[in-house]
Every structure is written in C-alpha cells, then in structure tokens.
Design a protein that fits this description.
about 375 residues; alpha/beta; six-stranded parallel beta sheet; six-stranded mixed beta sheet; 12 helices
C-alpha cells in the first residue's frame, strides 16, 4: 500500500528525499581529509595539523572549532603518515617478564604516566619465559608494532648472563637489573634501603635481625639480602638463617609460621610489603605480638601498608621517579643517538625509611616473650 501523497511526502509530512539527505549528512564521511576539516572549520590546513599534533600556538576557540569539524566529519589523524613524516612513531615499547609483582606493576604505571606527559604512548609486551629466543621475539614483535625505543623491566638475573643479550642498534633502557656495564639501567637503591631497614632495627636495641628474602633469581632480592647480611656483619652481629619467599603474601605467611617458632627472634626485615603482610598474619595466629614481641619492617611502601595491622614500617621506593628516569633516558637516546652510543651505567633512585607502628624495642629478656 502506498503511504505517500502525491507530493512525495510521508504521512508525517516529510519528503523522502529530505530524510535521505539528513541521514547521509548524519553519517561521518569516509576518508575525510585534513583539507576537508580545514574547510568545515574555516581555518588553514596548517592549523588543523597543529591541533591534530597537539602543538601550541592555536587559540582555544580555534582548537574547539577544529575538533568539532573533526567529529562532524569523522576525521582521524593518520598516525602512520605522521610517523613517516617525522621519522618517529611517538610510541615506546615496554618488555616485562612478570606482571605479578607490585614493583613491576608500579614501575610500568610510572613509565606509562611519564611517557604520556611527554606525548608518547606505550606498547606493552609481556614475555612469559625469559630466554634468548623470547627476548629476540619480543623485540621483533615490537618492531612490527612500530616503536621508537624500548624499556625493559627485568627483575630477574638475565642480562648479566651469557644466554641473553638485547639486539644491537636498539635504543634501550633497563629498569631493575644488574647490567649497568652493558646497558643504561635505572633502579632503586636496593642496598641503601635494606641497610636502613636493618640499622633501624639494630638501633632500637634488637640483637640481630632475621630476613624474609625474595626469590633467588631476583636481582632486587639478592641486593637486599646481601645488604642485610653485610650490615649485620659490619655491626658485629651474627646473621640468622635466611628464610626465603616468592614475593607473595602467601609465601610470607608460610615463612612466618616457621619464623614464629624461633623464640629468640625479635625482629624481621621482609624484602617486600606483601610478604610482610603474610608474615604479620602468621605471627598473629601463633600468638606473637607485633611489635611487642617481634618488630617487622617491609620494603616498597605500597599504598596498603599504612592499613596493615599494625601499620607497617617500611622502605619507600619512588616508583614514579624510576619511571620518569627510564622515559627520560630512552627519549634522550632517541633525540641524541650519536651523542654517546656507548653510554651505559646505573642510576640509583634513593629510598627512605617510613616509620609506622610495626617496630619497637625488643621485649624484656629479648626472647620474644613479654615479661
């Protein structure tokens, strides 16, 4: 049945041709160009380019006109074309071998934040198995994804081993590694932080300090454990047997059940806050009060550590500064590639002791029992 009148109108009084015209106008144009945006916005193509690339020198009113025209036309800047013109992709690749540790996650977050502030995006490539083939495969995949340089978050011992090396000719900065003689490295002052933790407990009057260490293959764990041992030895104290975990709260709990049975233990330095959390639970379950019977110091100063019971004394790591220096270092290599192609070395970011309620002088008698 024909529902239109002789004038080609619908019963609502709207011409079909008008409806089709409006529908076409409402749909974004396919393949809109920068010149199209400039024409609609009433500006030059150069102004559209400046807005598209985030350059200064455009008034806010003009910028809003251009952005409105982009939305109307469905225009999206051609990042690939811009990259070819500039000779850069404005993207940094990040290779990491673990996203399960708080330190790596916070370092990655800091890198992404710092990169964004510099106008760069971040492409993440987790590597499940840290082997030479996996490392080279990661670099190949990042090459296909078009990145300007790479930051490697490598917590484990790998770059200092003969089995793995990074491809030559790639601008690289490494976070959390022991490869400063071969690459540019940014890291927390692991030794200084661990030393401050142990000295704090000794200064409170504890005869010695037990250590809940991280996994054996971790560079950071080794540095903290070595500093614990050295600090005790230099103070003329006998280091107790080292107890090891895997960074998780569960491993801290299991280790804590063993430590709780050591009645001469009055102080523990845990290599990270998550293991310290598990340790606190184990000590509580075994009736060992913190800090009245045993003092506990962590490492990291995660946001939740102030809400532990009791609030945790810990070593603060400045992850934001580590991320900033990683980005600053790799961008420096991009912008000045010929300045010093052999420049390596390690930049250490200082730590600081954060005092809360989990540490106190040892109990009378020093055997873990209150008198």
């Amino acid at each position: 049945m024909d529902t239109t009148d002789d004038g080609g109108r619908t019963p609502a009084g709207t011409r079909r041709s008008d409806t089709r015209t409006r529908r076409r106008a409402a749909r974004p144009r396919q393949g809109a160009s920068m010149a199209d945006v400039a024409r609609v916005a009433g500006v030059s193509s150069q102004t559209v380019s400046r807005v598209s690339n985030g350059f200064p020198g455009v008034t806010d009113e003009t910028r809003q006109q251009v952005l409105a025209a982009m939305r109307e036309l469905g225009y999206r800047p051609n990042s690939a074309a811009r990259a070819l013109k500039r000779g850069e992709f404005r993207t940094l690749g990040v290779i990491t071998f673990s996203l399960s540790t708080m330190g790596n996650i916070r370092t990655l977050e800091a890198i992404a934040t710092s990169a964004a502030q510099q106008g760069y995006a971040v492409t993440l490539l987790p590597v499940a198995v840290p082997t030479q083939d996996e490392v080279h495969g990661a670099f190949s995949r990042l090459g296909e994804l078009a990145v300007d340089a790479v930051i490697v978050i490598m917590e484990i011992h790998l770059l200092d081993a003969a089995t793995v090396s990074l491809p030559p000719g790639v601008q690289v900065v490494v976070a959390d590694s022991d490869a400063g003689d071969r690459y540019t490295v940014v890291d927390t002052d692991q030794v200084g932080g661990a030393r401050d933790a142990v000295r704090h407990l000794l200064d409170l009057g504890h005869d010695t300090v037990w250590h809940l260490a991280g996994p054996e293959d971790s560079f950071a764990a080794q540095r903290r454990a070595n500093a614990w041992h050295t600090t005790l030895t230099e103070a003329g104290r006998r280091p107790p047997p080292l107890v090891r975990g895997d960074w998780s709260a569960e491993s801290g709990y299991r280790a804590g059940l063993r430590i709780a049975e050591q009645w001469d233990c009055t102080a523990v330095f845990a290599a990270n806050d998550q293991m310290a959390l598990g340790l606190l639970r184990a000590l509580h379950e075994r009736g060992r009060r913190v800090p009245e019977d045993i003092s506990v110091v962590g490492f990291d100063d995660i946001a939740e550590s102030a809400s532990f019971l009791p609030p945790l004394t810990t070593i603060h790591q400045d992850f934001a500064e580590v991320g900033r220096l990683c980005v600053e270092g790799v961008l420096g290599k991009i912008r000045r590639p010929a300045q010093d192609p052999t420049e390596h070395g390690t930049t250490l970011v200082p730590t600081r002791l954060v005092l809360r309620d989990s540490t106190a002088p040892p109990p009378p008698g020093g055997d873990g029992h209150a008198v």
